[in-house]
Amino acid sequence: MYSFEKLEVWQLSRELVKKIYQITTSFPSDEKFGLTNQLRRAAISVSSNIAEGSTRWSQKSKARFYEISFGSLIEILNQLIIAHDLGYLPKKDLAETRKLIDQTSRMLNALHQSTKNKPINQ
Q1: Is 55 within 8 Å of 71 (Cβ atoms)?
Q2: What are the structural domains, with CATH classification, of the chain?
Q3: DSSP string, the chain
Q4: What is the pTM of this model?
Q5: How do residues 43-62 score in pLDDT, each as one tens digit?
Q6: For residues 86 and 83, what is the distance between their CA atoms, to the nearest angstrom?
Q7: Could you give the 3-state DSSP secondary structure of residue 122?
Q8: Cα–Cα distance measured from residue 104 to residue 30, given in angstroms and rounded to the nearest whole number
Q9: For 82-120, what is each residue's pLDDT tens digit?
Q10: Nearest-angstrom CA–CA distance, 56 and 41
Q11: How large a percentage of the chain has pLDDT more than 90?
Q12: CA-to-CA distance for 114 and 14, rounded, in angstroms?
C-alpha cells in the first residue's frame, strides 16, 4: 500500500469523484464536452494531485501539489454552482456535494499546513 492510500483526505476525494460522476450522468448530452467533462476532470485532479504530492520528497513540492488539488476543489464548487444556475443540478444535490467539498477542503488544508510545519530535512 502506498502512503497516499492511507490518507483520509485522499479517500474522501474518491468519494467526491464518485459523487461528481453520479451528478453529471443527469446533465444534458450537449454538456458532455462542457460542464460534464470539466467537472469530472477537476474531481479526478483533486485525488490525483493528493496522491502525487504525497510522493514528493521536498515539503515545498508536496505543498505545491496540495495547492493544485485545492484549486481543483474550488473549481468543482464553482462549476456546480453554475450547473445549479443553469437548472442542471437541484439545490439539494448542490448542498450535499458542498458538504463533501467543505470537508475535503478542511482536510486538504490541514495536510497542506503539515508540509509547512516540518523541517526541510525530514
Answers
A1: no
A2: 7-116 (1.20.1440.60)
A3: --GGGG-HHHHHHHHHHHHHHHHHTTS-GGGTTTHHHHHHHHHHHHHHHHHHHHT-SSHHHHHHHHHHHHHHHHHHHHHHHHHHHTTSS-HHHHHHHHHHHHHHHHHHHHHHHHHHSS-TT-
A4: 0.91
A5: 999 999 999 999 999 999 99
A6: 5
A7: coil
A8: 30
A9: 999 999 999 999 999 999 999 999 999 999 999 876 544
A10: 22
A11: 89
A12: 21
The pLDDT value given to residue 118? 55
Q: In angstroms, rounded to a whole number, what is the distance separating the alpha carbons of residues 80 and 65? A: 23
50: which 3 cell numbers? 493528493
CB of 35 within 8 A of CB of 88? Answer: yes
Cα–Cα distance for residue pair 11/4, rounded to 1 Å? 9
Cβ contact 62:55 at 8 Å: no
